[in-house]
Amino acid sequence: MRVLVAMSGGVDSSVAAARMVDAGHDVVGVHMALSSAPGTLRTGSRGCCSKEDAGDARRVADILDIPFYVWDFADRFKDDVIDDFVEAYARGETPNPCVRCNERIKFSALAARALALGFDAVATGHYARLTDGRLRRAVDADKDQSYVLGVLTAEQLAHAIFPIGDTPKPQIRAEAAERGLAVAKKPDSHDICFIPSGDTQAFLGARIGVRRGAVVDDSGAVLAEHEGVHGFTIGQRKGLGIAGPGADGRPRYVTAIDAETGTVRVGAAEDLEVSELFGDKPIFTSGTPLQGPVECQVQVRAHGGITNAVAELRDGRLVVTLTPPLRGVAPGQTMVLYRPDAEGDEVIASATIARA
């Protein structure tokens, strides 16, 4: 089988490539250039797509004796991931750029080019498993990335391979060291890859500008002024610009954001609880829509935000009832539904949260 491996220059994709070679496939490595002005070096665990990363990927490809190329997806990444991220925050939403990157870049733009060139599949270093075309959680629960892959369609999954999803991360590093790969000790990337500084508010502020508004309490009383709703997310407690806790002495959290009026509402922790989610643009990873109410688990964040639920399709929208409720769920987040079973939790659907 002809397999294209997306090689980021990290330990996970490097071992994924090595395993594909060991399996006897015809393997080609590709590093995706996602930045129009890549930095010379990374800053520890921050950033990606640097010249260092491309160089690390090339050195691994040399050791594995496989062809290696750099493909430029910078314009597509800017349009489909970065601009989408900025526009969502300007609307008062909280998007996950990793979800969009997998949906629109790695398993759309990259996979489409790979298939057009005659490859049978695209392999990545994601921690997830595929059994008979069904997406499941990884063996390593702490590293599981099935959530950010939950937006993939059955057709996309049919041409995907996740070679390391059956192995805990410490063993992956040990395997890389045994193979003589210098990336064995390379730090994992954290935070948002295209914001290497880690200062999301500054990044957004430079692109959205000042859009003044008010921070108000449940009575509508103005507590503070702000320079843009992009500086807030549902559930946020710190950096609200208000003087201390509420009249009852309890902390206050962002409970609602109205981008049109620039209003940020704050309230008590219990005001964050939601028992029902409404999701647009549902995707069913098996290719078959839900039939009637389905008992499942729902996850609303890449790390955490999991609870039992009952989901059903109503007029093209995914409606999910949560038991018990979750706190701090924001429009723009992705909800991913799982069906627990003996083989490992299976992803059955996903949708973008429109309201809670």
From TrEMBL:
Residues the record marks as active site: C101 (nucleophile), C193 (cysteine persulfide intermediate)
Domain tRNA-specific 2-thiouridylase MnmA-like C-terminal: 277-353
Domain spans labelled tRNA-specific 2-thiouridylase MnmA-like central: 202-267
Reactions mediated catalytically: S-sulfanyl-L-cysteinyl-[protein] + uridine(34) in tRNA + AH2 + ATP = 2-thiouridine(34) in tRNA + L-cysteinyl-[protein] + A + AMP + diphosphate + H(+)
Residue ranges of the region described as Interaction with tRNA: 143-145
Site (Interaction with tRNA): H126, Q333
Molecular function GO labels: tRNA-uridine 2-sulfurtransferase activity
InterPro entries named among the record's database cross-references: MnmA-like, MnmA-like_C, MnmA-like_central, MnmA-like_central_sf, Rossmann-like_a/b/a_fold
TM region positions: none
Localization per Swiss-Prot or TrEMBL: Cytoplasm
EC numbers: 2.8.1.13
Binding residue positions for ATP: A6, M7, S8, G9, G10, V11, D12, S13, M32, G125
SUPFAM superfamilies: Adenine nucleotide alpha hydrolases-like (SSF52402)
NCBIfam families: PRK00143.1, trmU
Classification via HAMAP family: tRNA_thiouridyl_MnmA
Function: Catalyzes the 2-thiolation of uridine at the wobble position (U34) of tRNA, leading to the formation of s(2)U34.
Protein name: tRNA-specific 2-thiouridylase MnmA
Source organism of the structure: Mycolicibacterium frederiksbergense
Gene this chain is encoded by: mnmA
